[in-house]
UniProtKB/TrEMBL annotation:
This is histidine kinase. It catalyses: ATP + protein L-histidine = ADP + protein N-phospho-L-histidine. PROSITE patterns: HIS_KIN (PS50109). The gene is prsK. Residues 494-696 form the Histidine kinase domain. The keyword Glycosyltransferase does not apply. It comes from the Bacteria.
Amino acid sequence: MIEAGFLDLWTTVGVAFDLTGAIAAASAGLWLWPRRARLGRTGAMVLAALFVTSCWSLTLAAAATGTLPPIVASLFESARNLAWLVVVLRLFSGDGRDTTLAPIRPVIIALCFVEMLHLCIDYGLLNVALPISAQRVAFEFNVMFRLLVTVGGLVLVHNLYAGCSHEARSGLRWPTIGLAVLWAFDLNLYTISYLAGGWPTEIAAFRGLATLFLALFIGLAAAGNRDELRIRPSRAVTFQTFSLLVIGAYLVGMVAVAQWLSYAGGNFARLIELAFLTLASAIAFVVLPSRRLRSWLKVTLAKHFFQHRYDYREEWLRFTRTIGSGGEEAAPLGERVVKSIADLFESPAGLLLTPSDQGEMTLAARWNWAEIEVPAIAMSMQSQSHLERTGFIVDLDAIRDAGIDGEGTPQLDTPPWLLGDTRAWAVIPLVHYERLVGTVVLARPQFVRKFDWEDFDLLRVIGQQVASYLAENASQIALAEANRFDDFHRRIAFVMHDIKNLASQFSLLARNAELHADKPAFRADMLVTLRNSSEKLNALIARLGRYGTGAVDKLDIVSTREVLGAIAARYRDSRQFVLVESPDLDITANRHSLEQVLVHLVQNGLDASEPHSPVFLSVVADGLHARFEVLDSGCGMSAEFVRNGLFKPFVSTKSGGFGIGAFEARELVRAMRGRLDVESREGLGSRFVVRIPLSEATNLYHNLTKNDQKVA
């Protein structure tokens, strides 16, 4: 009883949809009658086909209720197919291709012949009593003939639209879509019927929907604004739909193979069928969620279904969400810059390189790429100049291939560390007002493809936008540092004022003591103490007056041995400090400033080292410079801190530190025409290198300058 009720339900649904389809086809025909001229020579045949289709839907409903025998519905279905095949032929002739495409007429004649065979089989089944086995064979032949007609009709519809001219597509778009819907539904219906060996009542109940869509699209074909109508599915909808189609095709294929195995498997048919279904399901669970497969699907759909590869609105919204995300949990700007560009190609990782204070390109940020080793100087000045001048987007795979065959290599000195790492895929320069503010290195995505003009255009636009963010961020940081310096100078001004007053009081006290002290011994001690204090305070005032400017009083010829001797005397009670035997060199520097720099570096090394770990100080001649080295084996510093925090004022790793010592040391070295470099590894230690010009180099420079002035 339950099964009968269930079948009655589907019969009722089928009758309702069939009547709806009949009404829709008849309404479309009536509406189209005064407008048939819009369809040209095909208008009258389309009206006839709609009338036949409406009658077919009515006979389906009547056959389902038992009013008419099923042979009548089958007869009208054949008439429907023949009518629409004639419409397709008229559409070919309307485009002028019926004379150039010779196979069209034979195909249609063959399909008409198949329909006639189908009618003969139906008539034989109705009038001749056949055994059950023969009836099953006849049923399969019946379904096979229907499949041949639907497949042939779909092939004709595809060739009709795919081969038409650009001008004719606006008139053919909607009729071909309607016929594709009608015959595609029949294709699935008869395929399932053939595989199941019986009529699928539940699926057949929805045939009226296919008729409804056909009538709707035929009406659109005759609409006055048909040229303005477009189906514009979003890329996300297209991708999801195509993914469902792929999964559906996979499942249908899996069921078909399983059905074939059940026929050919013999005694172990059921076991073989279950084993195949298990294996196919396991493969589906592994392959279908694959990121590589999804990337391939997106590229394929973008290439064949859309005029442009990218959905620029969606890409721009995603870019702004990524680059503009804020809050405490947001990633640093450098990582967001890399991610915003990597998302365009589904790249899993990337790097951001930015110019250092010296101008060389150094690592500024990583995104999901911790294992790659990036040298201190990541890119040569020649490469930076080339990228800045041309904005060239580097395809590293193309350069690797060109390195083999010697063709197509761009004029770029590509760093070896990039070519050596096979994950490195592309280099995108970030240019802001003709100035290179950074470079993004992308890792290889799951699905790799060649860059084309659309990729380059989008990357240039995104690169310019990202460069403006980086430039604005650098300006904000510089402005914040300037504000903090202003505040620092205001504080120091008060301190200097107080110390000056104290120094004046001490000086006055010393003069009064010289005149009024009674005891010579006390007077002598007091004078020495006060004079020393006065000298120290005045020296402190002088240093505070120079603080933050990096200025030195004057440059003289200084002996390195005297400088190292003064530092050794300062740390003579420390067992950690080790002065390496070094040559005596004459340099051009300010002795007080140089001692201040070296004392700061040595003291930092002592603070960062264990009590038993030595800190070495040495000097050697290095070309035109004297190279001072301070080496320790302390806790070390990370590469990110060295690049982004060590020489930034007010950034300190010490509790309560002011964070200005390293910055001041570098500025003092620069004021002496030198350079301060650092190499450090966490857990291994640090190596500070101070280069100061030799006196001979300074004399040579002055002589050359004087000669140039005389020539000028």
